[in-house]
Amino acid sequence: MSKIYAMYDDDSTLLHGAESLVAKGVQIKDVFSPFPIHGIDPVIGVRKTRLAICAFIYGLTGMSLALIGMYYFMIADWPMNIGGKPNYYFYQNIPAFIPITFEVTVLCTAHGMAITYLLRNKTLPGMIAKNPDPRTTDDKFVMQINSSDIDMDEETLISELKATGAIEINKA
Amino acid sequence: MHVVEAEIREPLILGEKSYNDITEDVCAPIEGKANAMWYFVFGLAGLVALWGIGNILYTIGVGIGVWGLNKTVGWAWDITNFVWWVGIGHAGTLISAVLLLFRQRWRMAINRSAEAMTIFAVMMAALFPGIHMGRIWQAYWVLPLPNQFGSLWPNFNSPLLWDVFAISTYFSVSLVFWYIGLIPDFATVRDRMIKPLPKKIYSILAFGWSGNAKHWNRFEEVSLVLAGLATPLVFSVHSIVSMDFATSVIPGWHTTIFPPYFVAGAVFSGFAMVLTLMLVMRKVFRLEDYLTLKHIEYMNIIIMLTGSMVGVAYLTELFVAWYSGVEYEGYAFMNRATGPYWWAYWSMMTCNVISPQLMWFKKIRRNLVVTFILSIIVNIGMWFERFVIIVTSLHRDFLASSWTQFHPTYVDMGVFLGTIGLFFVLFLLYARVFPVLALNEVKTILRATGEYGVKKHIHQISHSNGQSNHAVVEEEVEVEKEPVLEVEQNGVDTPVEEMKDVSVSEEEDIEDKKEQD
Fold it and tell me: Would the pTM count as exceeding 0.80?
């Protein structure tokens, strides 16, 4: 299997190119770009990420942790009588627990989501970058097509790519 | 695809920039060598920071008796500085989170540095409660850890503990938000570096970012959700800081208006500090095309708005002190305005209420020198605000025999100056090695709000009256055919033949031109 990289110098050219190629039955493996190309995901079949669902679950976890923790510290384990204020019932203390509940919820959601994001992306310190050309983090946009994914022969594909406005085509 | 801005809007990126130009302009300070001025300012800030660290170590070694605190005024400069720094640390996350949710594109040029400023300011803030504890080595007592005292837990009903959670959450979430945005830009720097060692360092910092479609898909989701989380967080942090005061029964502190009033004040001082730093940075790093007069004007409008909110809060406090009929409250406010600390009160009023009103004038909003001076005045005023709230409310105790004044010692001053020095040390280091603009975000708005494709010819003819250069502006708008932009409206793609015509008034063009000179 060989990989074909078609380079574009504009995001909209790449997007239109991708649309016409997909219409002709070419499967695009991936796209590398210096910034998000809006509208490319449905064209090349990238599904919507489920990170937000994870974030919601982390948030629920954080909120429960905070409430259970404060119930244990302040009500169950060692109720403190401060200025004669009631401390023996959880519901009476709820207003005073809101700030920390909120903070811990945000803390768990944000960090949980960030960690999940880095793990799912496989971006961690020491990881090797996979962009085929250093210019893709500057001003070039690269489309990757795996020859095993398509029915076309390579010459036809290359001429199709050139027709979409690719400025450079490399094989690897 | 790109949504083209309304034609009446000023462009947010000046000059005919390509994507590569943006990369070049932002990476230039990282790849180039620092000039003598940088070393001078860095050295100066470093010396002040060292002096401050010395004073901090002295405080820790001897105890906080070396400060000017006394039995009556138990909180003074330390907490004033704490609240001041936390307030300054509010602009960054506000710019990157709240303005992201409001789809304000002008935030993209300033969010990176504003967030860096936030992080450094919160670090400085967190120092003060730490050293104010006296025995900093027991700082872990604020955490609910199992302990040898029969499981004595910290008091979760206390706003001081809420503050511990608020500040640490705010700091760590801001840091994560900032770093996630930095990863793609570090990748850009990594891919440009030629020398092996810097390349290695930046490739570690870039976490192996490849910028493929799935990465960007997740990146946008994470940015959006983190912005959604950080927005209430920004408002909660200073609300909780204000509750340190508002939940007590000290006249002058026991006010329900405190949370919104503190938040407005925080945004006010934060934007002022952003302006102070940005005005210098855009000049030194030649980023005038990205941090345009329009950006400065927007920030000045926010300063004007929040300054007015703070003004309304001051007046409301005064009114309620009288209207409530509580004589202690009434005395506290009379004493602020006419007592021994009248000078602090009236400095605060002048700097925070009167000075931002100058921003109603467009000429002043767009004047760099006036903006720079006003941004410093605002920060002086906000320091006085915290000083007034804290010290004037405390120095008249319930017993007249305890009435006293607060006199700062050289250690108080040294610690405060030291944090300013340390802040600038961190910021200067940041400016040398980090991409100071959010590259990947600025590139996304280039086509929509940049001056791209619009050619202008400005002929400046100096006028004989000597007062100002009078310029004749000839705008020749050349429509570039390539690439064809599209406007997405209701999901229907309509090809637009014309690039937008950037209508800029002649006067502003001259100003911009002068700027670049």
Answer: yes
